[in-house]
């Protein structure tokens, strides 16, 4: 049976497509905002390869978290549809 891992889903809990689009859109906009500074990468006074590398590590971790949140929204939405 499809979706046994989701347990019983109440039909009232079915995902609203507009809400799913809005949540994912907001997360993708946040992801774009995190990525935007990378396009303007330039060496500033006091900048070193080490500090730039550390900053890149923080950025990639933040991007991964945002993508994980978007994935969770989509998985939840699909789980509610799976029970129809």
Note the overall shape: elongated
Order of helices and strands: HH
Q: Report the structural category.
A: mainly alpha
Query: Mean pLDDT, as a whole number?
Result: 78
Please report the total strand number as a whole number.
0
Would you identify the regions where 5 or more consecutive residues have pLDDT less than 50? none
Instruction: Give the terminus-to-terminus CA distance.
Output: 12 Å
Strand content is under 5%
Helix content: 55-70%
Number of helices: 2
Largest β sheet strand count, sense and barrel closure: none
Computed Rg? 19 Å
Question: What features would you describe in this structure?
Answer:
This protein is mainly α. It has a domain at 55-84. The protein is built from two helices and no strands.
How would you concisely characterize the structure shown here?
The chain is an all-alpha fold and 84 residues long. Helices cover 68% and strands 0% of the residues. The protein has a domain at 55-84.
Summary tags:
84 residues; mainly alpha; 68% helix
Write the layout of secondary structure elements.
Blueprint: H1 17-39, H2 49-82
Helix pairs in contact: 1-2
